[in-house]
Amino acid sequence: MIDPTKPCLLTQSIMEFLAGTKNGVVLLDGIESLVVYNDFNRALKVLNQINDFVMQYGGYLIVPINPEAFGERERAMIERNFETISVLSVLES
């Protein structure tokens, strides 16, 4: 586990992982902790930076979120740059 008050360490670890693997999958669970220990804008910046690294290295990024943990505006900002998959739609298939 990486200290949520040091998002640069998280980003660095993910970048090193992706550089050393092909089609790596990053599961970033607990994004709410980044928001609590930083602020939303900084957490979103970190998410976007990680997403850029993932795309650069041809990997996959999975970020489960609880929609109730974010306001409508915050959810819209997160969803703007990411493909969203509703758990309900996956379970119904």
Topology:
Elements: H1 7-19, E1 25-27, H2 31-37, H3 40-56, E2 60-62, H4 72-80, H5 87-92
Parallel strand pairs: 1-2
Helix pairs in contact: 1-3, 2-3
Descriptive account of the structure:
This protein has 93 residues and is mostly helical. It has one domain. It is built from five helices and two strands, in the order H-E-H-H-E-H-H. The longest helix is centred in the middle third of the chain and has 17 residues, at 40-56. The radius of gyration is 13 Å and the shape is globular. The model has no long low-confidence stretch (mean pLDDT 88).
Poorly predicted runs are none
Q: What's the number of structural domains? A: 1
| Classification by helices and strands | mainly alpha
- Major pleated sheet: 2 strands, parallel
The total of helices stands at 5
Percent of residues in helices: 55-70%
The helix-strand sequence is: HEHHEHH
Strand content: 5-15%
Gap between N and C termini, in Å? 33 Å
Oligomeric state of shown chains: single chain
Mind telling me the C-alpha Rg? Answer: 13 Å
Based on CA inertia axes, which overall geometry fits?
globular
